[in-house]
Design brief:
The protein has two domains: 43 residues; 187 residues, no CATH class. The N terminus is likely disordered. The protein is built from one helix and 16 strands. With 256 residues, the protein is an alpha+beta fold.
Amino acid sequence: MTVTSTRQPEVSGVTDPAELLIREARAASRRRRQRVLVIVVAVLVATVAGFLAVGNSGPPKHVNAPVNTDPGSVGVPKTLPYPATLKMQRGLYDGGGHIPALPWGRVIPASQLRWINIKSSGAIDEWGVWRPNGDGGLYPVRSTDGGVHWTAAGPLLATDWAGGGIYYVGKVISDGPTSVVMVSNAVIDVTTDGGRQWYQYLNPASDWIIGGQPVSVSIGIRIRPFPDGNLPKGSYATYVLNDARHEWVRTSQSIG
């Protein structure tokens, strides 16, 4: 009996050149699509990273921009209107050369006492501002007997001469018989030796209201903004005098 095999003969590998070209073209197309996909993904990742970086950095900051480090606002840039120190210059207003200086300690005549119209509070030791005959010049004066007698205690503070108006003082803050601060919206005049030597700080903006600030050592002042000024409303700063360095050192502040 003859056995006939039912197994189909194996199909040999494709040798048709046309079929080979078609397969190669399809493979090349797949590789191109993969490369394009990789490039697209890379571009998307870079774009998203750029948006995240811009969002986290916020607006550009100046390298010297002051930063408010008060609790609750750490790292938030904010204008600091009150300097860390107020460096004073030696001497007072120097524009009154046409007005003779009074010798230190000269007794003010009784007829002139009515022109001492800005005074500090004090039972015995008092400081004041004298305007001779009610004219334009101002001089610092002091009394050690409760205001009965007054003596000259320094050079000209201010005058109505051109440019001298900003130096007029409107408040006297006494710290005993040898120390006093005389202030306005623009100027801080200080002596700690009875008026023999004076130091001055000038705020050209003339937008401060200055008052006394009780401190345990030295002399203290408190500065706040003038109502119609540009400083933040409700802000203030306190300063203590460093007499050795002739400067006021800020000890606290509130931006408001």
